Amino acid sequence: MRDAPLLALRDYAISFATPDGTVRAVNGLDLGVQPGEVLAVVGESGSGKSQTFNGVFGLLARNATTSGEAKLEGRDLLGLSPRMLDQIRGRDMAMVFQDPMTALNPAMKIRKQLAETLTVHRGLSRREANAEALAIMKRVGIPEAERRIEQYPHQLSGGMRQRVVIAMALLCRPKLIVADEPTTALDVTIQAQILDLFRDLIAESGTALVLITHDLGVVAGIADRVAVMYAGRIVEEAEASELFARPAMPYTAALMRSIPRPDQDVEAVEPIPGRPPDLIRPPTGCPFHPRCRFVEDRCRRERPPLAEVAPGRQAACWFPFIDETAGTEAAQEAAHG
Fold first, then answer.
1. Distance in angstroms (rounded) separating the CA atoms of residues 117 and 236
2. Mean per-residue pLDDT for 70-92?
3. Domains in the chain, ordered, with CATH?
4. What integer best gives the mean pLDDT of the chain?
5. Contact call for residues 174 and 87 (beta carbons, < 8 A)
6. Chain centroid offset of residue 169 CA
7. pTM of the entire structure?
8. Residue 264 in contact with residue 274, Cβ under 8 Å?
9. Which tens digits make up the pLDDT trace of 303-317?
């Protein structure tokens, strides 16, 4: 029996009012994040990954409407005032963004940005905050931390800026960290270093990590569990090892086939045909059916629910596991490469 989730989303939905109609970016989503686990949320751009957690943090655009529940340790975040939510962000939950320059003030030295978080959320004195800020800089592996902490963001490399943002997220020892595409803008070597850093820090602190990415290969060596999103819904959820060994949903298998491999030419990568659906006028039935190589008439007529297809596994597909081998080699290569 699993412990109560740290973060629980129930019948969670986000929509945006636009001149062309209502965009249903997240649609009836159920998801739990356990204490201390690493959950990867994967899918193409526009699948609703980032919006799901922007809503949790209260970072949606003004034309957004949320419904359902988003509870952190039993407390529904959607009903909180901005002031109360400000007290929770940074202290109990923190976010690491794809572009660290959007999270750092370009006109403020690194030391002041880190220390300010500690004085606001933990009530430390300026001297205590400065000392702890320097200690966290060293902890995330920034070389010459004493010198770097007195610099401005533009004076640091992209990899070091990302480490500063991770340091900022860790300052208040939150129970939950959400990292939104934290390695996309970095080269492969720095990507590996950042993922190793996350792995070590989570092991030390017991903090839960949600890693949002479009690339299954990035999460192969770090995630405990994977939730695959498509068109605002979760279409597959499983332990990482089981999902990589045998995807249940054709969309997951297609994502795996699109993973570049070092032993293949670029031309060998198989992109997913077609385009993601229009979230204002979604297709009937399964939203993936226009792009699915195994589509049947039922797929066009009826939307499959997210249901258990094997012990501990869920998929939204009328014909799960139909593609037993697709993507397996790519997934194994990603997991070991």
1. 37
2. 91
3. 7-92+174-336 (3.40.50.300), 104-168 (no CATH)
4. 88
5. no
6. 15
7. 0.89
8. no
9. 999 999 999 999 999
